[in-house]
């Protein structure tokens, strides 16, 4: 298929890129692994305060400069100031776009003299003022629904479910398109395009407990590494307590303000055992933030939950038990109205049921490095957006920034991709033959079989056990051993047309997981959510600055960069 721009991904950032490219006059194909409006973190991410941050749409005291400083304070030394400046300055306009598309942001019941609008604003972690706007707990879905309707109306061609198999480059190393696999038709599709926007999301599928959809197997990260792109800040990712059964739901700070009763499989209230002298259970609850961070005492809660599970005292689905039975119903409805409503809609009684809560992966803070304000990667013509992209999220980030990044850089990438497509046609597809030869080899006849279930379980078990709360050299080494074993199996094993999508996804999952583990090994210090029990102190003298990762001749290599 020949087109101007190919956008890969179906979440908020990719959808925004496809819409903006079309609005800029390009012919656009949106290629998504899951049907539109069903996959990705934007659609499925949900918490009591999920929202998008933008100064200038509410609090009169706030400004783009303060938003910039809040973001830099949370990640200075690890994030690109010029990208953060763009994020802070453009976010208000992108909120305005969403309002124009009909996104029904929550409103105040009564006027607030400090605000220039009547939108309900949330002050999230690391934010000086309330600037985050949401839609009654369905923020991400509301974004994708509104954007998806508009891009379809404007004639964007949506191909889903189609999996990204590879990017295609020309003789100069610039992007010339992508290869996709349509499992329904069992067909390979070569999209020829001068510009490609990747918004394939994170590596959620690599963890046993995660808060999004399992089709995110690190495809973009692994493919970009294989093509020599730079990735940044891979050791920093977000996770924390979440309901893990019968469905997955983040437990934000609001849930812990209610002081739930937390017990292990033996019925023991165990948190106090993990607290140092002078720290109380009540203090941990009141200070609890999401995601996990070593910067305050709430870290002991995540440590305690993970330790009980790893010691074999967890629930049947890999969690511990939470109960709100002692909390008055009116207080539950006042403090966690969205969480309570979601539970009731799914047949759960917040007052009487026990809930299985574990530590769940939420998102990557690092990714493929954006080298300019248009979200272009180190590969010319390849733009990266959303959770796949790296450069504006470091060890910490203000709440509400993730959705803002997707909209700001999705718009910029889509517009720049359309501009590039107008200026040039794709060069000859120099790497296409090698990609097809690899696939032919995987699909060739062979008597050897592979248990994909076992391979996937090994990857997920290793990442869940050794690459969440507590990390050390020994555990990271064990995880790398498991991941490399899985990689070796996947490289050697043949696939069929029926198993191609899953097999390639697991290959990408293993490659992306290995890169994350290597980054965690390389950072021999503790910083925010990166907690090394064998290097418990933050070491600015040796580790203030980010690691850049590239794959050369099949080997991962790190270099340093400071902002």
Description of the structure:
This protein has three domains: 5-46 and 79-99 and 138-236 and 363-423, FAD/NAD(P)-binding domain (3-Layer(bba) Sandwich), CATH 3.50.50; 239-361, Alpha-Beta Complex (Flavocytochrome C3, Chain A, domain 1); 432-561, Fumarate reductase/succinate dehydrogenase flavoprotein-like, C-terminal domain (Methane Monooxygenase Hydroxylase, Chain G, domain 1), CATH 1.20.58. It is 37% helix and 17% strand. It is built from 17 helices and 22 strands. It has helices spanning 12-23, 41-44, 64-75, 81-100, 139-153, 219-226, 253-257, 281-287, 299-310, 329-335, 337-345, 401-423, 432-442, 452-466, 473-492, 500-522, 540-543; strands spanning 5-8, 28-31, 52-53, 132-133, 157-159, 163-169, 175-182, 187-192, 195-198, 231-232, 237-245, 249-250, 261-263, 320-323, 354-364, 367-369, 382-384, 389-390, 470-471, 531-532, 546-552, 555-561. A five-stranded parallel sheet has the order 5-2-1-9-17, covered by helices on one side. A hairpin with a 5-residue loop joins strand 6 and strand 7 (175-182). The model has no long low-confidence stretch (mean pLDDT 93).
